[in-house]
Amino acid sequence: MLKFNKPNVPKIVKPKSKNKSILLGSIIIGFIAAVGIYTAVMSFIRPVDVVVAVRDIDNLKKITEADVAIKKISARSVHPKAYHDLKNVIGTYPKMPITAGEQILSTKLVNNPDKVVDAFEALQPDEMILELQEGKNIAFPKLLKKGDYVTFYSVEDDGTKEYGKGSKFISSSGPNIVHNFNNLSAGKDPTEGKIVVICTREEGKKILSATQKAKMIYVTPEHPENLIITPGKNTAAPKY
For strand 47-53 and strand 127-133, is the pairing parallel, antiparallel, or unpaired? Predict the structure, then answer.
C-alpha cells in the first residue's frame, strides 16, 4: 500500500485575546486624539459672526443700521469684547471715533451720551478722546497722573513708530483683582485695565490702526519741556 505524506502546511497562529485588546485600545485612543485635535483646530479657525463698522463713525454720533453690519471672522481674530448681535449696537453712541472695518467693542459704546459730553466740551475741533483697553499688545505705566503728556510707541514688523506725541492723559484703571479671581474661578476671561487720553483725530486714527497690527504698543510719559512746538502745527500738548 502506498503511503502519502501530508504536505507541510504552515500553522496559522491566532492572536491571543490580550493582543486583540491592546490593538483595539490603541485604535480607540488614536481616534479620540484625532477627534480632539480636529475639534480644537476648528474652534480656533471657525468663522464667528461679529458686528463691524461699514464706514467711519464719529464720536457721540448715534449708530444706525447703515453704520454697521455682521461679518464672519475667524475665532482667533475676534476680540473678546466684540459684539455679535446688531441689536446690541444700533442706537448706542461711540465714545470715540470708529473706523470702517473695525470690530465694535462694548468698551467703546455708551447708551447715554450725556456721560461723556462734559469731557468733550474741553476738546479742540481737531481733537478726540481715545480709550484703549490694556491687553496682550498694549502696556502703560500705572503711575500716570491726570494732565500728564504721553507718546505711543508701536512695535511693528517694519520697525518702531511714534504716534500721538503730546497726547494728554485723562485717566486709567487697572483690573479688579477680586473680580478677576471670581472670573477665573468661573472659567471666564479676566478683565483688563484701560487708559483714556486726548489726542488729535489724525493721530488717534493712526493709534487705533496700530492696535490692529502692532506686536506691542507702549504708552510712555512725556515731559512738557521736551515737547516740540512748531508754529502752525498741532505737535504740542493741547491747551486747556
Answer: unpaired
Beta bridge partners of 167: 150
* 166 in Cβ contact with 149 (< 8 Å): yes
Task: Look at residue 16 in the predicted model and tell me its pLDDT.
Answer: 55
Query: CA 98 to CA 75: how far, in whole Å?
Result: 21
pLDDT at 83: 94
For 28-82, what is each residue's pLDDT tens digit? Answer: 787 777 776 766 666 556 788 999 999 988 877 889 999 999 999 888 888 888 9
Alpha-carbon torsion, ordered 46, 51, 55, 60, to 10 deg: -150
Backbone torsion region of residue 45, taken as left when φ is above 0, otherwise alpha when ψ lies between -120 and 50, otherwise beta: alpha
The answer to whether the predicted template modeling score (pTM) of the entire model surpasses 0.70 is no
Domain ranges within the chain, ordered by starting residue: 43-105, 122-240
Specify the residue for cell string 510719559. 221
Q: Tell me which architecture the domain covering 43-105 has in CATH.
A: Alpha-Beta Complex (3.90)
Do the strands 138-139 and 216-222 form a parallel or antiparallel pair, or are they unpaired?
Answer: parallel
